[in-house]
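Reviewer comment 2.1 asked that we show a complete input and output for one of the modelled complexes. We chose the NAP case, as it is the one discussed in the main text.
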Amino acid sequence: MSHSRQIHLARRPRGIPVREDFAVVEVPLGDAAEGEVLVQGLVMSVDPYMRPRLDADQALETPLIGGGIGRIVQSRHRAYAVGDLVRHGSGFQERFCSDGRGLTKLSPDPELPLTVYMHALGGTGLTAYGGLLETGALKEGEQVFVSTAAGAVGSVAAQIAKIKQCYVVGSTGSDEKAAWLRDEVGLDAVINYKAEPLAESLAAATPRGIDVYFENVGGAHLDAALPRMNVRGRVPVCGTISSYNGSPQAVYGIFNLIYKRVRMEGFVATDFAPLNGAFMRDMTGWLKDGRVKYQETVLEGFERAPEGLIGLFEGRNTGKMLIRVAD
Ligand SMILES: NC(=O)c1ccc[n+]([C@@H]2O[C@H](COP(=O)([O-])OP(=O)(O)OC[C@H]3O[C@@H](n4cnc5c(N)ncnc54)[C@H](OP(=O)(O)O)[C@@H]3O)[C@@H](O)[C@H]2O)c1
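Response of the prediction step:
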């Protein structure tokens, strides 16, 4: 009998999680039974949505909810062969047996690194694509504001807007991230919301107002954006990360929706499954021709998953936060 490791929630966090809220637990692992595969995790995604779940949905002393990419290392399942790569939603487990439920075979493009399937060519990219083009109904040449623009979803959303010939303003929390957005990604204006007064800087950066605000933060960011919205503007609500640790910020400017006829609408990545074919085609092309650039913050070692999750709320990632489990 061999062993695997799992990341468990040891206790419910108060505010931003701390390392002691989690436990790395060794568990026995047998061989794959008839109809099963044994999966070796390769890379795992840490995502902001995991934090609100720690308050209730995530059971204590079970693997944290999450997904990643793994390799089949034993197969007694007729649909899978040893060496196949799979996406999985089996939670934070280093290695595990599966009857195939929740696994999807992955045939990566040999010209692209595998990890891009965890962000630009994964749920992150589809979220940005569908949120901006479908929920946000973006039109060419519009005025766009994207918050957490150096993050996984935000950086893709901002670049899709640039591809659609829009004027794009992004916000982020460090000068280093701001420089990447300005110098490498080519945004028209970038605001470091930790170093400048957000509302004033956004007003100065959006002389022609905002047609689409791609909302990732909530609170003060939403309050800064609402007065800048143009008539018939759209606010696709992707996330409100400033509220995930239980300290929601008041928003005062909702009245701006009324006379400007602004539409504010939430969405979930899975809503865009029908767009997946077009998304994969477009995004693969944009990555290969360099029109979509990306960064990754990769923590080496399965046991660093809690550090990765905590880091999201401290702005420690540029682009996608990933955990490397094995090569
Ligand atoms: N609707 C959906 O289906 C869906 C799917 C995926 C993600 N999302 C949402 O999209 C947003 C971005 O997710 P992501 O995976 O791309 O994460 P991410 O942006 O790669 O990482 C989180 C970033 O948020 C910023 N941040 C953290 N706390 C903040 C605060 N209090 N105020 C302002 N910014 C803060 C930090 O960047 P800075 O250094 O720039 O502050 C941090 O690096 C989140 O709200 C998430 O919940 C929604």
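The two ends are 23 Å apart (CA to CA). We note this here for comparison with the apo prediction described in Section 3.2.
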